[in-house]
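Exercise 7. Given the components listed, write out the predicted structure of the assembled complex. Treat all entries as one system.
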Amino acid sequence: MIVILKDNPDKRQLDNLIAWLESMGLGIHMSEGHSSTIMGLIGDTSTVDVDLINALDIVEAVKRVQEPYKNANRKFHPDDSVIKIADGVEIGGGNFQVIAGPCSVESEEQVCEVAMGVKAAGAGLYRGGAFKPRTSPYAFQGMREEGIKLLLEAKEKSGLPIVTEVMDISHLPLFENVDVIQVGARNMQNFELLKELGHLDKPILLKRGLSSTLQELLMSAEYIMAGGNEKVILCERGIRTFETATRNTLDLASIPLLKTMTHLPVVVDPSHATGIAHLVKPMAMAAAACGADGLMVEVHNDPARALCDGAQSLTPAAFADMMDAVNAILPHAFKR
Amino acid sequence: MIVILKDNPDKRQLDNLIAWLESMGLGIHMSEGHSSTIMGLIGDTSTVDVDLINALDIVEAVKRVQEPYKNANRKFHPDDSVIKIADGVEIGGGNFQVIAGPCSVESEEQVCEVAMGVKAAGAGLYRGGAFKPRTSPYAFQGMREEGIKLLLEAKEKSGLPIVTEVMDISHLPLFENVDVIQVGARNMQNFELLKELGHLDKPILLKRGLSSTLQELLMSAEYIMAGGNEKVILCERGIRTFETATRNTLDLASIPLLKTMTHLPVVVDPSHATGIAHLVKPMAMAAAACGADGLMVEVHNDPARALCDGAQSLTPAAFADMMDAVNAILPHAFKR
Amino acid sequence: MIVILKDNPDKRQLDNLIAWLESMGLGIHMSEGHSSTIMGLIGDTSTVDVDLINALDIVEAVKRVQEPYKNANRKFHPDDSVIKIADGVEIGGGNFQVIAGPCSVESEEQVCEVAMGVKAAGAGLYRGGAFKPRTSPYAFQGMREEGIKLLLEAKEKSGLPIVTEVMDISHLPLFENVDVIQVGARNMQNFELLKELGHLDKPILLKRGLSSTLQELLMSAEYIMAGGNEKVILCERGIRTFETATRNTLDLASIPLLKTMTHLPVVVDPSHATGIAHLVKPMAMAAAACGADGLMVEVHNDPARALCDGAQSLTPAAFADMMDAVNAILPHAFKR
Amino acid sequence: MIVILKDNPDKRQLDNLIAWLESMGLGIHMSEGHSSTIMGLIGDTSTVDVDLINALDIVEAVKRVQEPYKNANRKFHPDDSVIKIADGVEIGGGNFQVIAGPCSVESEEQVCEVAMGVKAAGAGLYRGGAFKPRTSPYAFQGMREEGIKLLLEAKEKSGLPIVTEVMDISHLPLFENVDVIQVGARNMQNFELLKELGHLDKPILLKRGLSSTLQELLMSAEYIMAGGNEKVILCERGIRTFETATRNTLDLASIPLLKTMTHLPVVVDPSHATGIAHLVKPMAMAAAACGADGLMVEVHNDPARALCDGAQSLTPAAFADMMDAVNAILPHAFKR
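Answer.
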């Protein structure tokens, strides 16, 4: 870490700063330039609070050279992490997985039917929302505990491991038999929840927040990993920008970039990112092409009951078509 | 609500939609145009799920005429809400309040000294962070339970009611004697937490999320109010944009706009919004000028111990100077 | 177009509005709802100024059903446009073209060497900057007229048609033998320039502005097409967001979305979008996978002279590797 | 400027870099740290191209200590610039000016009537659009040359100096008697135009681009000043963000921040920034409170002819009311 000091820094403040940095076990290398003095901090600076230093009157600027994440950092774990979800179901390190299922769990019939449909088309995991974060308190909030029971039934029938979203620490006991716990975009910086998930021995699917940088995403992964749970799967699902033609802006360059920053698997959710069903297939193909480790796709089962047609959901047939297209891309996909 | 249908909508899907809307007690007024058919929905549409309708194959577009928030809506509560925080401490309806104090509670000495300082300068409420949301798991996470105890001591000594942030439902019992519970920007859409706060009889300071629209802010207030707790104070604290010269972009136009949308009080946090100490005073003045109901300002007490100098914190003397400047503006401030 | 009126609109203002709309040849269909009146405008509303109507005191909201662009609209031109650039060089309608070359033209040797290199690797067009838009007046502004001469030399030697950027109307005479004139992101809404280009019979490569919506991009294409020049190639090159890990955020979902909105070819510039050389290949592959009609890629020739190494430029060898990867994707790419 | 090198940089590339930097007259101070080497560049680095250095293989990061703008930099011109527009009309250094007038010039009657109205209410300059940048080629493009003639008539009748926007270099001869030439947000980086304006001896009102940082705004001012024209007035007019409740997001913190970065006057345009008439007054008050040197406000004259009611325009009476409110704030406004 480089700390650039202002001209003629206050002597007492500078001594305080040096003493404080040394108390953290850091070595300091001073370099006096023409119009500014530079301090080079030597040692493990990943736990140093940049904001705190930046805030000092005597500091002009702080520049990290080392990344603030350790467990998630590819520099210290050069090989891809391969996360085992169930027998024969792994993700990362060349194992590509498609997670598919309905936005919300609505009924036993629906949840089992879609599960069999997506399994037939080649999905490796089954997803469904039991707890639903909704902008409006008046909108359907999900089937909650009952929804998780239905997902577990679908798991038993289909043999597919299941992924579903947690919204609060207090609900965690319900997730005991869930295979992958999803942290939604709105909870990416719910740090108390992340800490709790760090104590589990279960894969966590961590979605990028709507206005989160990639570094913040990795710092949230770091919260989970610092607690001991290294099974984190990252998910790019679009960021909020000025463009309103799609629901969010899918940031696909984040895929190859994250793969250089971290060893964790990265999946892409083209359904939520675009909010438009006919964009799911091309974006799934693009995600596969640029090196994603998997996809998360919304599939519904009931074309007749129009109200289920999420604008962003595919029918099982459209999903199967998408799978064919993605499978044709995969052998030619980007590899680091 | 206006629903614009596509050309030649599928008859069965249209019948399904009409039946579903009527089952919610809505009247439907069909208007067949040249190239599209328009449905006008008559009745209380605040609980209708726009996304669900928008998702239908037969729907071209949906346009809300009525706002999706009710309890927070000024249309139904034309008068400003006045929220009583303690004896003699009210906010809203012409009552301007300044909430001041340190970013983090660090020690008994610090917390009490700053309290007396900001009280002397005219602050009406005292703030301090006990639970601290930090991007890094390696950064100081706050004194937590111990921090709240120190805040309560400062309350007793200074007589100022206190405001502090909650990060998880499970911590709420510790907040029994806290006067105002703050929901931070990162938790603005932690819906389970909002629901729980809706069952309390205590003022809630709800900060706008980093990438939240004003309507989403009001929908989060609606979560709290729908549970029965109408004591919600909104806080504009900057949004995330491409501009990096300030930490966030303070959206001051939101103040007069929110005041037309809702009857709830709105305060401004210039410290977090800008992240730069010398911008706090002018932005506090601007916020007062355009009709804010109050301010939330970071003040630290220890200029000698440089490390406390949050880049965004004022000394007590600078805070007193800011208060003078704001008090000179207030008699001339914008009134609806 | 749907105009939603406020309750009890002023009679005189309403009459004025109706008279004005009818004077534009529009039919009006009034539909009185419970709490609001809706006007449906029948006829060609593409030339109606939405802002003007939205601004009226009596209007609650305006909703376009019809798009404001005509010449660029796929509804009126269902087939893909195929734009002929030179003999045997077409783009669109299944013809995929790669435009490659250095950021700036620097010398005869450089410009010719790179041209031969990218031709050998399979590029169909050659690009190079003669006029360079630079944030700083102190930065290199390009070789200008001399640069265009060198590009024309490279064209003669390599046989590749050339693409280069125009920055001002007054420079247009220099572009007579340029095959494709590029409009840079900063000039996407330089409307006087667009109008002038509308009078040429030459393909125009129109780059999306840093903060432009897709609709605004199409409206700028419409400026050119309205003047009679229908040879417009659109270029997605990243938008400005809060994320700073990449220079801009490449919005790849815009590709399949634009292809539904317009019949014009769409190319992707992964070099400028990401600003990072090692992201160019995966993003080129992703762009090809989701249906782009071509790519625009920066290639430099002088690995020894380090200062030429644009952070975003590939060497000819890396470009050839990228071409192989893209060519492997193309047979499996998304088709509408 | 600080250049942080990667570990074990290629010797030849490093020598090339050093030679190149020395050829620009810069001194170099090498500081070898534990895991990285830092080069401190000594001398005038304002003309050094950061992107070019950042792009080098051997460079980890570059950090400017010195700003890239010189003429606009307050460090080198500590006193506020006071720009004389006409006899008795100055802006900056404590001189507050309000620029008011209609969005578009429409007729002689309109342009003169509004001029007399805003003069009576205390405006110091008169504005009106003759050349209008419009998103759609089908929207009204302004009265152009005829519009400028009408503005000059209004100037003669009212005695107010006039401000109007230029859209292309070729139109400049028409602006000979215009007092202040406005560069619109879309042309903030039309560098050829900026260079041309640098050769005039006439004040330039430079509006911030929709997605421009403050540093980019100052670099565009630098383009004009580098040509010799130091009479630049900056204008904050809102930036594009995800929030759609207002047309743009007015970034008022930019006012006190710009005032520390530059000596140039800064005005605020609350009309374009918000796009909502009832927000103009409170935002004008807030702008005055935080230290703006002036305002730019849209005023129309014809409340009866509803179609003129720009959503963002005030009537002359509302403008007079705004002026009273702003004048009450001014004596209490923030001063650096």
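Discussion: Confidence is low (pLDDT under 50) at residues 304-309 of chain A. The two ends of chain A are 28 Å apart (CA to CA).
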